[in-house]
Design a protein that fits this description.
By secondary structure, this protein is α/β, with parallel strands linked by helices. The protein has helices at about 10-20, 35-40, 50-55, 65-75, 100-110, 125-130, 140-155, 165-195, 200-205, 220-225, 235-250, 255-270, 280-285, and strands at about 1-5, 25-30, 45, 60, 90, 115, 120, 130-135, 155-160. Helix 8 (about 165-195) crosses helix 9 (about 200-205), helix 8 (about 165-195) crosses helix 11 and helix 8 (about 165-195) crosses helix 12. It is globular, with a radius of gyration of 20 Å. Bound molecules: NADP nicotinamide-adenine-dinucleotide phosphate (NAP). NADP nicotinamide-adenine-dinucleotide phosphate (NAP) binds next to helix 1 and helix 4.
Length: about 290
């Protein structure tokens, strides 16, 4: 099977490497070519545009920053959607909003392309270890066809429902992630201000039933003040924005997420956008 991959950032570069290791013929495109270097050394082919990468592909995978970028590369100048062969499958793994996934599903259909929204749960390390969880929206038989490919990049796939449902589930998860990290940061920061030892406070909070287990993974970052990005703060802020935009579309109120979104936006404004999202602790504490 000929696979095309667009978007070789933190996640995409690692996912594409696993596709290549699986023995597929892989063509890649990325805005910044040097991020493709190690893939090219290992046998991937470079394409100079989204249009070119799509030409021979049976399946195209996108792992891009946000909906605007996905739409631009799919349908803008030299976009990949019109260049794909009819009957090919487009798997969009980017975290986007559900109505955008539905719109891309419709655009794909107009071009005779089958579409799956397949955002992932898991960050840089699970991407490297092929341990991502795919949350998929779209037709079950299209998913069944590409399942062996997803199995090269992840260890679990959940078919959530029709087009857009994968994206619904993904923004639900990231809303919880963002809110949890923020609440933890406020709690820890207050404790420290009142004289509780930071390490002792973390021992107790992270062992408590009220703290989500995932936050344990961020302990060393907060202790060492090492915020090298696995999941950049600007992406988490984007996901909260997509969550609140979606709530607006469906006339639902999400007051606490709106507040959290703006706190992350303030941190982004203070040049923390490219740090890991756990650096929200640094923002709150300072
Ligand atoms: P990243 O490292 O910032 O990579 C973003 C990708 O989008 C890069 O390939 C980048 O190209 C491309 N891009 C950005 N703006 C562009 C533009 N204007 N035109 C063309 N290409 C553009 O992000 P990531 O962490 O891999 O995340 C990718 C997606 O996965 C996001 O939707 C994110 O929310 C989601 N996600 C991330 C994680 C995580 O832990 N990191 C986990 C799950 C889901 P360049 O290389 O040229 O910048």
């Amino acid at each position: 099977m000929k696979i095309a991959f667009i978007g070789l950032g933190i996640m995409g570069s690692r996912m594409a490497a696993n596709v290549l290791n699986g023995g597929h013929s892989l063509s890649v495109y990325n805005r910044t070519k040097n991020k493709a270097e190690s893939l090219l050394k290992n046998g991937a082919k470079w394409a100079d545009s989204p249009e070119e990468v799509a030409k021979d592909a049976n399946v195209i995978i996108t792992m891009l920053e946000n909906p605007d970028v996905v739409e631009d590369l799919a349908l803008g100048k030299n976009g990949f959607l019109p260049a794909l062969k009819k009957g090919s499958v487009w798997i969009d793994c980017s975290t986007v909003n559900p109505s955008f996934s539905k719109k891309m599903g419709e655009e794909a259909e107009k071009h005779g392309i089958r579409f799956l929204d397949a955002p992932v749960s898991g960050s840089k390390e699970p991407a490297a270890k092929a341990a991502l969880i795919f949350l998929v929206g779209g037709q079950a038989d299209d998913l069944a066809e590409v399942q062996p490919l997803l199995d090269l990049m992840g260890n679990k796939t959940i078919h959530i429902g029709d087009t857009g449902k994968g994206s619904v589930m993904k923004i639900m998860i990231n809303q919880l992630l963002g809110q949890s990290m923020l609440a933890f940061s406020e709690s820890l920061s207050l404790g420290i201000a009142l004289g509780i030892d930071k390490s002792k406070a973390m021992d107790i909070l992270l062992d408590s039933a009220v703290t989500p287990p995932i936050l344990k993974a961020f302990r060393s970052r907060i202790e060492d003040e090492n915020y090298e990005p696995n999941f950049p703060l600007k992406h988490l802020q984007k996901d909260l924005q997509l969550f609140t935009d979606t709530a607006y579309e469906y006339e639902k109120a999400t007051p606490s997420t709106n507040v959290a979104k703006e706190i992350y936006a303030l941190a982004k404004q203070k040049n923390q956008g490219d740090l890991d999202f756990s650096s929200i602790f640094k923002f709150i504490n300072e």
